[in-house]
Specification:
With 186 residues, this protein is mainly alpha-helical. 88% of the residues lie in helices and 0% in strands. InterPro entries: Hemerythrin-like.
Length: 186
Amino acid sequence: MYCTEVMVKQHANISRMLKVIKEICCGILEGAEIDQKEFAEILDFIRRYADGHHHRREELVLFPEMVDHLEEVASIIIKHGMLVEHDLIRAHVRALDEALKLYAQEPKTEYKLQILTEAMAYANRLQQHVEKENNVVYPLADRGLSGDIKAKIDQTVKDMEAEEGPDFAKGYMDLLDRLEKKYKIA
């Protein structure tokens, strides 16, 4: 199914950013300064690419079709697993953003610790989430949904991509390349 193939590729890009976040956190622990501009770029990636671009497709397109057309287990996995995790992930992002703002106003160790805590919690939780979707949720959709439903999902995702434009992801891929190079991530 086109939709899940695209989402797995998006997951690969998101996982690249998670590696960057972990490397930045390790650097801060070893004495590096907190780069507010860089964190702002990362938060933009998280909010617009990982959440607005990727999670939006899951929440508005794939997941509702799975809940409507697959067995009860799919509904439980989606409603009590994936959607709950999306909300928890967003909570880490809000807390990270707040900690960065507090640190910018007053660079206290407590705020630095909160930045590290929330950034790592986000990275760890989202990586586990990605693996569940790639290995359980998407294969379930691929196996269980009818050809008609898959075609409907694929067309909706293609329409969403057309709305965003062909260059939507380019800036985010450039950001990933730049950060991976800076932090020497292969």
